[in-house]
């Protein structure tokens, strides 16, 4: 069987040869790590998958810790099934039955998750090399990827851009944009970092307190495909409208959280507060703001003794993901917000993290 990494190498090499005229043997020469640093706040990103490798923050005493899970080397990300820190696309989350119909044409996709398509297919945007278009160490990193017509079964070529940037002294912003070139296509990008504000090797996230400004969810079937319903969280273990610990209702939900929340938009601002996470031992707090209608809350239920950075072994519930996004399987649910973007239009997804400690 051909490995995922080998297939990823093939696509990346072909893309580089087409657009950069490089030899296949030089593939690894185009993978690099870039640091953004301002004071004691630093972020490392690789252009392999536009992946966030580390986020280092002070706690209330000034002690620095890396608060995202990850692998000790880039090679770990090439065979990764956890999606640690990756930029997910062309369509993040799940597409039921690994197919959809657009403008009368049925498109069949790789079935890489129990007969469904997950996170863009067998080789998503987290599995390819991105071109660095701009880099200023104390300010930003901008990356570009050209998706091809038919790549992973999706229609149309498109240009995809992501910029990681500092905003002030305590904010990290992501701006993701995609422009179809020749055909209408679904687009739903997401950032897939696993957070543990106590430090990436500090154990489970049960004691983290979280508030989700979302009063509804899109319930799913046993394969995590949305049913098409939108239901309130009131009276369920999914209710985080008031801040409480993640572990407080795990007895009612023993497999953990892996669900799309419908963000409450109360006005027409460009971005809205989505979530607040607080870890009491370190005093670290993370606010998340975005312009997307949904956010996937995932408590790393599928981690299974994964070998991580600094010799740490990650067990289930070692990190939490907050993936702002369009609704899962929107291409098959007309009542969900559309993810179809036409040539001449631009998809824009903004995320802003604010980190403080007290």
UniProtKB/TrEMBL annotation:
Catalysed conversion reaction: alpha-D-glucose = beta-D-glucose
Signal as UniProt keyword: yes
Assigned keywords, A-Z: Carbohydrate metabolism, Isomerase, Signal
Keyword check for Isomerase: yes
Domain of life: Eukaryota
Gene3D superfamilies assigned to the protein according to its UniProt record, in alphabetical order: 2.70.98.10
Enzymatic class: isomerase
Record EC number: 5.1.3.3
A Pfam family this chain is assigned to: Aldose_epim
Pathway of action: Carbohydrate metabolism; hexose metabolism
GO MF annotations in UniProt: aldose 1-epimerase activity
Binding site for beta-D-galactose: 93-94, 192-194, 258
Range of residues in the leader sequence: 1-24
Active site: 192 (proton donor), 323 (proton acceptor)
Family of this protein: Belongs to the aldose epimerase family.
The protein, known as: Aldose 1-epimerase
């Amino acid at each position: 069987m051909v490995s995922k990494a080998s297939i990823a190498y093939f696509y990346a090499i072909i893309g580089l040869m087409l657009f950069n005229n490089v030899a296949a043997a030089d593939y690894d020469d185009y993978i690099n790590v870039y640091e953004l640093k301002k004071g004691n706040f630093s972020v490392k990103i690789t252009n392999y998958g536009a992946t966030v490798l580390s986020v280092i923050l002070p706690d209330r005493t000034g002690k620095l810790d890396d608060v995202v899970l990850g692998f000790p080397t880039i090679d770990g990300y090439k065979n990764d099934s956890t999606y640690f820190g990756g930029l997910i696309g062309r369509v993040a989350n799940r597409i039921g039955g690994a197919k959809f119909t657009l403008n009368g044409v049925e498109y069949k996709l790789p079935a890489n998750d129990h007969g469904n398509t997950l996170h863009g297919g067998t080789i998503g945007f987290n599995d390819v090399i991105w071109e660095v278009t701009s880099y200023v160490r104390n300010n930003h990193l901008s990356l570009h990827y050209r998706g091809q017509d038919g790549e992973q079964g999706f229609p149309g070529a498109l240009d995809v851009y992501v910029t990681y940037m500092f905003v002030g002294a305590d904010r990290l912003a992501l701006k993701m944009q995609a422009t179809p070139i020749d055909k209408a296509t679904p687009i739903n990008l997401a950032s897939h970092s696993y957070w543990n504000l106590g430090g990436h090797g500090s154990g489970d996230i049960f004691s983290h307190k979280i508030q989700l400004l979302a009063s509804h969810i899109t319930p799913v079937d046993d394969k995590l495909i949305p049913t098409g319903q939108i239901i309130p969280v009131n009276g369920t273990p999914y209710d985080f409208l008031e801040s409480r610990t993640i572990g407080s209702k795990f007895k009612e939900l023993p497999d953990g959280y892996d669900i799309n929340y419908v963000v409450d938009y109360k006005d027409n601002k460009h971005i809205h507060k989505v979530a607040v996470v607080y870890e009491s031992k370190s005093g670290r707090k993370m606010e998340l703001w975005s312009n997307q209608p949904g956010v996937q809350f995932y408590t790393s239920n599928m981690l299974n003794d994964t070998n991580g950075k600094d010799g740490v072994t990650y067990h289930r519930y070692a990190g939490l993901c907050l993936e702002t996004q369009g609704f899962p399987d929107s291409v098959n649910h007309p009542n969900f917000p559309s993810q179809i973007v036409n040539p001449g239009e631009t998809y824009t997804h903004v995320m802003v993290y604010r980190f403080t400690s007290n």
